[in-house]
Amino acid sequence: MMNTPVYDFIKEYAEKNTVRLHVPGHKGKAGEFCEAFDITEIDGADVLYHETGILAESQKNASAIFGTAKTVYSTEGSSLCIRAMLTLIKMLAVKNGRKPVIAAGRNAHKVFMIASALLDIEVQWIFPENKNSVISADISTGYLESFLDKKSELPTAVYITSPDYLGNLSDIKGLAEVCHKRGVFLAVDNAHGAYLNFLHKNRHPIFLGADICCDSAHKTLPVLTGGAYLHISETAPSEFRENAENAMSIFASTSPSYLILASLDKVNEYLEYGFVQGLSALIERLDTLKKNLISRGYSLIGNEPLKITVATKCYGYKGFELAEILRNNGIECEFYDPDYTVMMFTVNNSEDEISQVEKVLLSLEKKEEISCIFPKNPILSRKLSIKEALFSPSEEIKTEDAVGRILASPSVTCPPAVPIAISGEELNEEAVKCFSYYGIEKINVIKEV
User: Fold this and answer.
1) Which residues contact 350 (CB under 8 A, 6 or more apart)?
2) What's the DSSP call for residue 233?
3) Which 3 state secondary structure label does DSSP give 103?
4) What is the DSSP string of 104-125?
5) Do 196 and 204 meet the contact criterion of CB atoms below 8 Å apart?
6) Which of 144, 103, 117 minimizes the C-alpha distance to 385?
7) Which pTM was predicted?
């Protein structure tokens, strides 16, 4: 039977009514929240990233569930895990006497870009084959093969975001094979896909051949916000396992939330017993909903089981218009922009809630298709490294005045926090049109002397 050592320790401690002469300042006094369970790294509670007790035991449970060589908890989301992944990749490159270079899908989260700058990693951007959104980067195995084979010197790793914010899953197995044939590691931002490990046909990146990946447990599992995993594959270099905690601790807070740790610990029990059945039933229900929407004339994109992404213009609405209709009917979606409305479901959404979504969407009248299309993804020339640009003096200007200027810090819509242009790139008319399309009216550029 799966044990929950972290949760059990905290619960027992809370029930003792101990005089707490330690942080946090609320001293565990019951209030409107969960103060009694909010502890720190006291004796017996173990120390995150120097684990020898209950945290080590709990992480081993998670590792067994996900089939990894090592799984490490994060209380700071996948953002911390991404920084750690890049740190590990750099460590290995330096050990092998190589310059750390990562080839990354252009739809990487901004934390990847900033971490690359802080770690002085060179990024080679892989632009998508189908340029219909800055949020997605369609990278096939053949496309990646062609990209890598054109390089005189291969990168240390390839970095892929899958699933992406619109619900597109990449061919991780095929991409891993392409990478490994060339001695390149595959790292995956799987923030939206922790549940993929529990499908009847396992589609988790580690199972499919990725060397290292992150999962935001809180996005698709019943875990408190901030709970995430750093996963390392059995076939990954031993240095990844040996240095994982060190890589996490470089960027992590020394005051991790035990509420989040208890949540990650408790979910192990849940994942071990009954989750697969509930997930299967949910996917079957969502498949029916998707079919009903398509039969009514809706256009859906993406192949991720738990997302419904409506290409709203085909139905005569802007993405934000459909989101507003849903909101007025008591439904709040995950993300929207001019083109798409994204809805994320989990096993914690009830049948009544799913039926409510279905009722609202099927009641909407289809209107004339909106022909306005997304502006072309800009391909920009680099004038400065990401690091140089981020740490150069900058100024804020109107987007309309930015043609010919060099981007300093990235402007993003959040979610999904995917930069339209990357720090150090010279902005052109296509970039400015793209910024304007997403409603970004001001941007930071390198200050002119």
Assistant:
1) none
2) -
3) strand
4) EETT--HHHHHHHHHTT-EEEE
5) yes
6) 117
7) 0.95
At 397, which amino acid appears? I
CB atoms within 10 A of CB 177: 16
DSSP 407: B
- Among residues 185, 201, 184, 220, the alpha carbon closest in space to that of 78 is found at 220
Spatial distance between the Cα atoms of 404 and 427, rounded to a whole number of angstroms: 5
Structure token pair of residue 102: 């990562």
pLDDT of residue 135: 86
Residue 65 near residue 272, CB atoms below 8 Å:
yes
The CA-atom distances, in angstroms, between 176 and each of 78, 122, 125, 185, 269 are: 21, 21, 18, 8, 31
| CA–CA distance, 325 with 97 (Å, rounded to integer) | 56
Q: Are 430 and 388 in contact (CB under 8 A)?
A: no
Helix (H) or strand (E) holding 445: strand 442-446
- ω into residue 378 within 30 of 0, thus cis? no
Give bridge partners of residue 189 from the DSSP assignment: 161, 214
Q: What is the DSSP string of 130-166?
A: S-S-SS-----HHHHHHHHHT-SS--SEEEEE-S-TT
The pLDDT mean for the chain works out to 94
Backbone φ, ψ for residue 345 (5° rounding): -115, 150
Q: What is the pLDDT of residues 165-198, one digit of tens each?
A: 999 999 999 999 999 999 999 999 999 999 999 9
Closest to 445 in 3D by CA, of 390, 411, 407, 404: 407
**Distance separating alpha carbons of residues 274 and 257, to the nearest angstrom:** 27
Name residue 70's amino acid. Answer: K
Residue 366 structure tokens: 């289809």
Q: What are phi and psi of 274, to 5 degrees?
A: 95, -15
CA distance 234 to 237: 8
pLDDT at 448: 87
Hunting for tokens 């945290």 — which residue is that?
Answer: 55
Per-residue pLDDT of 54-95, as tens digits, reads: 999 999 999 999 999 999 999 999 999 999 999 999 999 999
Residues 422-439 have pLDDT tens digits of: 999 999 999 999 999 988
Q: Which residues neighbour 334 within 8 Å (Cβ) at sequence distance 6 or greater?
A: 307, 342, 343, 344, 415
Poorest-confidence range of 7-16, 202-211, 257-266, 408-417?
A: 408-417
In degrees and rounded to multiples of 5, residue 448 shows phi and psi of -80, 140
pLDDT digits (tens, 9 = 90+) for 268-303: 999 998 899 999 999 999 999 999 999 999 999 999
